[in-house]
Design brief:
about 25% helix, about 220 residues, about 25% strand, two-stranded antiparallel ribbon, 6 helices, single chain, alpha/beta
């Protein structure tokens, strides 16, 4: 089995990863509410989780939402959740610039993001549930980082593999990453062979049969 040490160099799309995950019974690990905000952007990395909470009553004055970004390591994928019910943004242009400067892979915002034009201008891979202009300042505050969070019923732990592209976002538990990625590469090889065969005049039904379209991951387990 292949060992994947440099996740940022993994070039396999979410569709292939989804098929590979299905093949080992790892179903419904995608996040249907999360949408790409930068067309064509793609990101891969281990989850760095962030969770917010309501403001506590024992403080007054200016209340910043969070300053966790300086602690996020290069290559990580920020996974931010706002379960408070307060409608406000937890990601914007300043965070995107900082994240890009720190070589953070991307960000998923279960909630709202803003400064979308600025984020697109620098090309930072941002994926969010919604878009708004309302700041989190003086509305919510940081609860914790690097804890288990949940998006769309999917439990996400620190270190789980996050892969995101124009198809959407999928999360693979870290103890299943190598198996899923091995199979995902096999899926892509099979589909590539089928496309080449069709371009050479082979009927699709025959090409699928020849190259094992029904179980493309078998190349990685034989």
């Amino acid at each position: 089995m292949t060992h994947f040490k440099n996740l940022s160099n993994i070039d396999v799309d979410t569709a292939s990863i989804s098929d590979a995950a299905d093949s080992i019974g790892l179903l419904d690990r995608w996040l249907p509410s999360i949408v790409a905000r930068v067309p064509g952007a793609r990101a891969v990395g281990p989850a760095y989780t962030v969770s917010y909470q309501l403001l506590s009553d024992d403080q007054s004055g200016y209340r910043n939402a969070a300053n966790y970004i300086d602690d996020v390591p290069a290559g990580a994928f920020v996974v931010s959740v706002n379960p408070t019910g307060v409608s406000c943004t937890t990601w914007g242009g300043i965070l995107a610039v900082t994240a890009q400067q720190k070589k953070i892979s991307g960000a998923i915002i279960s909630g709202y993001a803003r400064d979308i034009h600025a984020v697109n201008r620098i090309g930072f891979p941002l994926f969010s549930e919604g878009v708004s202009m309302v700041s989190a300042k003086n509305r919510i505050q940081l609860h914790a980082t690097q804890i288990q969070v949940e998006i769309d019923g999917v439990a996400i732990n620190p270190g789980d593999l996050v892969v995101a592209d124009d198809n959407g976002v999928i999360v693979i538990p870290q103890d299943r990453v190598e198996t899923v990625l091995d199979r995902a590469f096999s899926v892509e090889e099979v589909e590539h062979d089928i496309v080449c065969a069709v371009r050479n005049g082979v009927p699709l039904k025959e090409a699928r049969k020849i190259y094992g379209y029904a179980t493309p991951w078998q190349r990685s387990v034989n």
